[in-house]
Amino acid sequence: MRKHFGGLLCVLFIISVSMISWKPVNVNTAHITSNTPFTARELLEKYVSTIYESAHLQESGLAYNVFKKAETGFINLKIANKLPQSCSMLTVIDYTKSSCEKRMWIIDVINKDLVLNTWVAHGRGSGREVADRFSDRINSFKSSVGFYLTDVVYYGKHGRSLKLDGMDPGFNSNARAREIVVHAAEYVGESVIEKQGRTGCSLGCPAVAPEVADQVIDALKDKTVIFINGNARNYSSRYLDEELAANFIASDSNNNVIASL
Fold it and tell me: At the top level of CATH, which class does the domain 40-259 belong to?
């Protein structure tokens, strides 16, 4: 009897030791995704961040919050039928940056690609190296913030140029009357910056260097979006409605957009 009892104690001891020394297997949960659906706002954020990361916009110096505003407007302009549905070009100009920096980005948002990052002038009434004053007033010679649609190419006093229409009343809607256009200017470019420490100023136009002017105009012509960002405290736009853009991205008719995330 004692022999059986001693054997039972041995078995129990072995089991207890094995239980104490056992460790759970590490589980890699990186591949596990939640079944909880994204909200519309989360989908918009994911959509914007996917383009931002894929096009390497952070590395090129474009701030995420500026790009998000531009992309939100791009989506809402499509919703408003202001753009062809095939339009993929979005241009961002960030006048919070020095004119010594490449502060113009042309982005193919469908293919998630940065087409061009280059220098651009601001209006001489807006400041010297950095634009800090903005106006839509005729003869102010200042730059105007907001969303623009590009139109036709024409030949004027600056050669081959691109007409713009301002989409934000009170902020840039006088663009046609002021003759605010994209054109080439000898006072823009790296060599100018090396000589005088900054890019030269326009009369309000987003002028670019002659060597890239044709590339810029060809990429932007015929109804594409330009968003000009600046430190204009009172700026507002109907096209910055994130809820409207988010609901569009999340709608069933745009599953192809969601699938690309």
Answer: mainly beta
- Cβ burial of 155 (10 Å; 0-12, 13-18, 19+) is exposed
pTM of the model: 0.84
CB 225 within 8 A of CB 201: no
- pLDDT higher than threshold 70 for residue 21: no
Name the pLDDT band for 257 (thresholds 50, 70, 90): low
Tell me if residue 184 falls in helix, strand or coil.
strand
CA pair distance 78, 91, nearest whole angstrom = 15
Tokens of 167: 């989409």
Question: Residue 56 corresponds to which tokens in the numbers above?
Answer: 């390497």
Q: What is the mean pLDDT of the chain?
A: 87
State the alpha helices, DSSP H only, in 37-117: 40-54, 64-79
Q: Cβ(122)–Cβ(202) under 8 Å? A: yes
pLDDT band for position 37 (cuts 50, 70, 90): confident
| 3-class state of residue 11 by DSSP | helix
Domain ranges of the chain: 40-259
Q: CB of 163 within 8 A of CB of 154? A: yes
